[in-house]
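To make this tangible, this section ends with a sequence with its structure tokens:
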Amino acid sequence: MKKIFSLLFCIVLVFLYQNVKAQNLGFEATPATLPPANWAAVTGTWNTSSSIPDVRSGSQSMFITDPATTGTTIGTTNPFFVVPTSSTQFIISMAWAKSNLPNGVLYLGFRSGSTNTLNPTAATTGQPVNLSTTSYNRIISVSATTVAAGSYGVSMRAFRNATNPTGTSIFIDDVIAYASTSNIPDTISPDKISAPFVYIGSPYVVEWANGLDTASNSSRRKGVVILRTTGTVTIAPVLNSQATYSSSGGVLGISSFSQAGNTWQVVGATTDSSITSFNDLAATPSTTYTYAIVNYDNAHNYSDAVLVTPIPGPSMTYLNSNLNKLIGNVRNGATFVMNRISIQTNGNSNPLWVTKFNLSTLGSTNPSSDVLRARVFGTRGSSTFDSTRLVGTFNSPNGAFSITASDTLLPGTNFYWLVYDVNPGAANCNTLDENCDSINISSIIYTPSVTAPTGTVSINSQLNGVYTINPALPVGCGTNNFASILEAVNYLNNFGTSGPVTFNVAAGNSFTHAPVILSSTGSLTAPIVFQKGGIGSNPVVYGINGIGTADGLIVLNGVNYVTFDGID
């Protein structure tokens, strides 16, 4: 199954031998701070700019006002990437820059470790003598030799010549650095994508085959940008080399732009070069669109855009459904996710709808008293629970019941979560269970491949009263006994207290364990006490290796009114 990527654009930095990734250090990906986050200037004054004439792309650029004639060094205060031990790579850095006067100059270099030095210190490939006053120049710097393993940052040197000593501003945007096995900068775009198509539906499904990027000095293909405009368009957009494109826009990059009378919206962007499919959840089926798909590499060279006009997709069909039970323990008065239902479909046109979940409390001890309500949440294609999308609710379930829904299915796997809200007065040690006998999808009733997975959930009350810690006595729900201090503390942390609690730790016993971290607090009226119980030698706690900063036998983490008495 082809991977689907989200609308959010992120930049991931990993440098491996012959599998390099570029890092965009551009200021449009930096909050508007002065100086920008992780950058520092030795002399001169940093400013931000969001005016149209000065920002080449994205939401902002940075500029340095009146740099010194001897040069103002601007550098990252922390390394941006690490060259691995096995590497024999060059570092290549690129930026776009311009000056408001014809005497502004900018050199790029590299910062090794904590040394903010410029290397090379002289102009190299692509670095002009003077920056243009009307357009941004592409400036490229290459390390003179292969770099040693270690941490590297980016350093820039901005200066003005003596003929016009004041009033010079140098604008800088979209700084990129990457490691390469070649000392020839990559300024060649990867091949364009092929075999594209877009299916009309809910959602629109965009698919393609990625182009290659196989030149000897290739920085390797990095990802894909998906753009969309309304209407039928025949002129493909041209993306700016080195710019950042993001559906969320803002400081992350360009989210929309206009060319040839068309406004293009960035609906998706990814840094995963293996992705070949995208669900456009924001598209409106009744609207005519044209999509443009663009490959780009680690040096942010963009391929020619390929235009695609959506066509009707195959009608959605049901494939299967399944039920996964989530077992464990729940405190009375809490909420517990009982089951996860997965429904798999194919096709995106004429989408199917979930209209009803037919459920049962079979296996529960006393659901009429223990369960206030059952709810179903949907997370679309995400297999991680989230309570944002409530699909349906049923109050006071007892036996067979149904939750009515009206939820559109997406192509692929759709996840739903069956949740119980447990009554605060639910009986300690009672069990909860929930099954899914069938699901109404559009006009058909389907039975999941597993309707009643094994396992139940145990209700655990908050502690209140006297308990024992004695490994010689039975343990488990309702016994009021714990096998060790660690078990008692874990229960406290998970379920808390509703009154004063005393643990009588059986005399003559010893306990060996990693640090016990207690985070459930007592109070003035409900203290927590661990004390020696019975006749004999004091109980002894022996420690083993600490955990992180927790290096002690008993760790009290932000708690009050806790007492250990007669325990060695």
Summary: Residues 1-21, 120-126 have pLDDT under 50 and may be disordered. The first strand starts at residue 23 and ends at 24. The chain is about 5% helix and 45% strand.
